[in-house]
Automatic annotation (TrEMBL):
Species of origin: Lentzea rhizosphaerae
Signal peptide coordinates: 1-27
Record carries keyword Iron: no
Lineage, top ranks: Bacteria, Bacillati, Actinomycetota, Actinomycetes, Pseudonocardiales
InterPro entries: Glyco_hydro_46, Glyco_hydro_46_N, Lysozyme-like_dom_sf
Keyword entries, A-Z: Signal
Keyword field contains Signal: yes
Highest taxon of the lineage: Bacteria
Protein name: Chitosanase
Amino acid sequence: MKISGRLAAALLTCAALITTTATTASAANLDEPRLKDIAMQIVSSAENSSLDWKAQFGYIEDIKDGRGYTAGIIGFCSGTGDMLDLVELYKSKKPGNVLEKYLPALRKVNGTASHSGLDPNYTKDWKTAAKDSAFKAAQESERDRVYFNPAVKQGKADGVRALGQFAYYDAIVVHGDGGDKTSFSNIRKRALGKAKPPSQGGDERTWLNAFMDARVWAMKQEAAHEDVTRIETAQRVWLKAGNFDLKTPLKWKVYGDSYTIN
């Protein structure tokens, strides 16, 4: 049967749509349970020098980065507001908890590196709270709301797979998504000056290289973050290998330490 030019064009368009849909359906997304756990392990390797992220609910220390206390599974900070939001959520879930009395102090130190009103017992009480399943659940909820879900949502919108979504997630964890020049949104905006994401017709590898370049620039703006191995000897290694779906085994280095997920 002879097919007209118009019908042939329509069939080609339909075939292209089917191919695109199939590719999208088969693409690995970071919110798949196993990949989400892998993402947490990778972040923990950089934040806590351990793959055991579930052991970090009770972690708390001042790492002298100007953000006060850094704590928990994702590095909630007393100086950046996310720790305050977390403790307020914990109060709503479990009134009278051991951290509730620190809320006035957390409000006062927000935006500073101060420990005023928190010392000397805040770190001890944090570790006590970390044994409570309600506090663990609150940490996971805030991690998802503030960091993980926005990163995955933007990654999907940009047409990048698990690796790209992880690159976004790690950037939001370290830099937040406020209005300063090193925030996630401004890192992405800087990358847009060099390349386009797949959703805008760009090549995924080229786009992620541009994003990682912008991220390296942002890291080097702060002395506390000038070590960029979490990008160069981890994310960039997987990108060069074309491992867009974060397929295991994964091997990488952070701060000179080697890690493997099989």
